[in-house]
Amino acid sequence: MKKCRYAVLSTTILVLAALAVLPAANASESESYSDPTTNQDREVLFQVSTINALLLSVYDGILPVADLKERGDFGIGTFDRLEGEMVVVDGECYQVKVDGVAYVVPNNATTPFATVTFFDPDETVLIETANFSEFKEILETSFPSENIFYAIRIDGTFPYVKTRSVPAQEKPYPLLVDAVANQTVFKFENASGTVVGFWSPEFVDGINVPGYHLHFITDDRKAGGHILDLRVEGAEVELDLTPNIFMALPTAGDFFNIDLTGDLTADLEKVEK
Amino acid sequence: MKKCRYAVLSTTILVLAALAVLPAANASESESYSDPTTNQDREVLFQVSTINALLLSVYDGILPVADLKERGDFGIGTFDRLEGEMVVVDGECYQVKVDGVAYVVPNNATTPFATVTFFDPDETVLIETANFSEFKEILETSFPSENIFYAIRIDGTFPYVKTRSVPAQEKPYPLLVDAVANQTVFKFENASGTVVGFWSPEFVDGINVPGYHLHFITDDRKAGGHILDLRVEGAEVELDLTPNIFMALPTAGDFFNIDLTGDLTADLEKVEK
Fold this sequence. Notes:
The structure is a homodimer of 273-residue chains. With 273 residues, chain A is an alpha+beta fold. Helices cover 23% and strands 37% of the residues of chain A.
């Protein structure tokens, strides 16, 4: 009982701590990221295909990594045939395969689904001890709006990170919800590394992942994956407020013929957790 | 009864006529519009804000028309305070005000919601006699996919066009569904002019208008509006297949605080019809 009360109190304090950064964040917001009239090249979340196309087995790579890197130096995604988890950080693209190893990706590798941007942090939010759901809640309180995108980067040492990767799929491709049933899970304790990802508004449901979508890569860039669980301690979270999105849809292939009118929210929830 | 049967037969023939153009359309598709790896500057549907933000009264103009014209020479939208219907055609921007007159818009006018692209037709579809719902159905059968965007242009003489425009709103702004209750309706018979607009896939629900969204401007560019009803006869419909979308969200103002998580499909239906 006492332990429980402490946990609640701790969260409350952390929320208040996060709120304390808000005035500064709001004040700097109008200066720190550009309005749609000028220099938007770096303030764009660039996305290949849609999350629902991925849920419906559109796994053939359509965009070379070389081209993806021209649209951003930071981001996440997957690869041709759903082979592994993508982490783009500091302009380098890594592929965390199902063996848990992060490989540097050749420029001619392709992606069926990815999201990148040029990471220019606008705000830093300090979050003390928090589990994954506390972390998510606290960070959201620092957002000036829930109607734009946020690129999220945390460099540091994490008490706990649980990730997964998925093996390459064979045709006929299974649904994503079935493909991730074969995922391999990795657990890291006191791991130094970088959390890379995005928070997207609810209204991109079906197009990208509403809420958080985070990947991880270790400091030595040798391991990582799609984050399933996370604990932070003294995390300095860098946020890049991103008011623009560019979506490049496939111009041929399976994408043209699938039925994208259905609601796949339940599938997405299974896949992300 | 006989008349009714004729109508059905007529539609069937028209559908078959439309289907007859399909093989050519599909064959040319892969050559005629670029893939996401190269020269995408002109193959982008550029959009300001979201349709649900407009439904929720976000009417303050945020992007100058001068900047909008850099993103496309063709498109539709509205203006600051919801004042009138926008038609962008051949690089010129017109505002059809509630008096029914189309005015050339100064570059410093602003828009809270607009969609433009550079119009480079990929296909032409001939549609003989058809009412609005027949026209919509026939044209859709010529689409190689229902998962990308189409810019639609028809130059010609139309047996019937019914349009509307909406007056400027005062703060506190009413909902769009209430604002259009004060719309003024215009009817054109045997009118020469240009239909300008888009067809968008279902998955942009909440972001843009799924299906057709068409405006009209007369040949002399003196009148027009948002199309409520249309009859075509020997219409040569030009389609620009558009696989990319760039969405520029407001970086301040009412947009930051509205709740965009609701389903406004019913409101949109009322507003469009």
